[in-house]
Amino acid sequence: MILASATPISLTLSVLAASAYAWVALRATHLSANAARNGVVIAWVLHGAVLAWSLMGSTAYFGFAPALSVTAWLVAAVYAVESQVFPQLPTRWALAALGALAVALAFVFPGTPLAATASIWLPLHLLFGVACYGLFGTAVVHAWFMTRTEARIRQAADPHSGLPLLTLERLTYRFVAAGFVLLSATLVMGYGFGDVLYGPTHAWRWDHKTIFSVLAWATFAVLLAGRYQFGWRGKQANRMLYTGSLLLLLAYVGSRFVLEVILGRGA
Fold this sequence. Notes:
Order of helices and strands: HHEHHEHHHH
Number of helices: 8
Mean pLDDT: 81
Structural class: mainly alpha
Number of strands: 2
Radius of gyration: 19 Å
Distance between the termini: 15 Å
Low-confidence stretches: none
Shape: flat
Helix content: over 70%
C-alpha cells in the first residue's frame, strides 16, 4: 500500500496528473479537438513529473503499478505525437481515464525498492521491458481503432472522421514489430545476465513471469510471421495481438500484483 516515504510533493503531482487526465475524460464530448489535445499534453507532462519523482529519487521503487503507469505514459506520448501528425485522430476519453487510473494506482501501490545487489545495468533491462509494454500497449490501442474504423465503414459513417484503415493497420504492426525486437532483447538480457542484473539469487528460472513472457514472445513471433508470409490481417491478427499482449501483461504486472497485493511480499 502507500509507503511511509510518500511525500507531499508526490501526492500533489499525482493528484494534479490524475485530475488533468480525469478532466479530459469527463469533458471529452464538450471540448474542441485542440482543447482535448492540450489537456492530454498537460496531463502527460504532469504524469512524467510523477514518474521522474518516484523513479529518480534517492531510492528507486518499482512494481506492477509503476510499470502500468509508465506504460500509460508512453502510450499517451505516442498518441500526443500522432495527433500532431494526424490531426483527424480523435482524443479518446477512455485513454485519458486509463491514464488517471494508472497514476492513482502507482501512488497507492508504489512497489518496492530495487535490490541493493542489483547491477547498474538493471535500469536498462527495466527500460527495455517497460518500453516493449508501451509499444504493445500502443499497438493494442491502434488495433482497437481499426475495429472502430471497420465498424464505421460497415455503417456507412463519415469515412473522413478518423485515420484510414490501411494507415492504422500499418502503424499497428510497426509498433508490434518494434515491441517484438525490444521484448527479444529483454528476454536475452534476462537469460544471459539474470544473475548479474538482479543478483545471484535471481538468475533465470522457469517461473510464472518467464513462462508468460516466452509464451507472449512466441505469440508475437507467429503473428508477425503470419502477417508477412501469409498476409494475416483483420480479426484473426487482432486476436493474436490481444492474446500476446495479455500474456505479456500477466508476465510482469500479473506476477508482481500477486506478490505485492495478494501475498503481501515485495520480491
